[in-house]
């Protein structure tokens, strides 16, 4: 299965009538493996910041998580495994696998929990596959 298929069929899927507004699978080095057409153009230092927070949890909390120039307030996550961010009625979930970052961005009416389920389910599957 191609990485784009994972994004199109598993991340951009429907859950209770809602969809993510954008999604991507990005290598730890910031290389894009696959992304939705709506995923923001991000800066390499934004991915570096996310990776630093996975290595040293809490480093993004004071400054926020930036993705495509958008600032998200960092909320509860799982240290070293999941980072969650909130901005207004939307937000972002980032799940770290052995080789990649699985990212989902949502807006209302999708709930944070629905985004978490979609992103973390695929992330857990990839981890189980050694990816």
TrEMBL record:
InterPro entries: PFN, PFN_euk, PFN_sf, Profilin_CS. The keyword Heme does not apply. CDD domains: PROF. Pfam families: Profilin. GO terms for molecular function: actin monomer binding. SMART domains: PROF (SM00392). It is found in: Cytoplasm, Cytoskeleton. Keywords: Actin-binding, Cytoplasm, Cytoskeleton. The keyword Cytoplasm applies. It comes from the Eukaryota. One of its GO terms (cellular component) is cell cortex. Occurs in many kinds of cells as a complex with monomeric actin in a 1:1 ratio. Binds to actin and affects the structure of the cytoskeleton. At high concentrations, profilin prevents the polymerization of actin, whereas it enhances it at low concentrations. Belongs to the profilin family. This is Profilin.
């Amino acid at each position: 299965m191609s990485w784009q298929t994972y994004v199109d069929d598993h991340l951009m899927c429907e859950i209770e009538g809602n969809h993510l507004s954008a999604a991507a699978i990005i290598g730890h080095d910031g290389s894009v493996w696959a992304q939705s057409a709506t995923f923001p153009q991000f800066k390499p230092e934004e991915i570096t910041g996310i990776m630093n927070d996975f290595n040293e949890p809490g480093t993004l909390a004071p400054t926020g998580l930036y993705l495509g120039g958008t600032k998200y307030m960092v909320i509860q996550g799982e240290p070293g495994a999941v980072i969650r961010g909130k901005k207004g009625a939307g937000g972002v979930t980032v799940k770290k696998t052995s080789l990649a970052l699985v990212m989902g961005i949502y807006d209302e009416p999708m709930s944070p929990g629905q985004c978490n389920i979609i992103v973390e389910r695929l992330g857990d599957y990839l981890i189980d596959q050694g990816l």
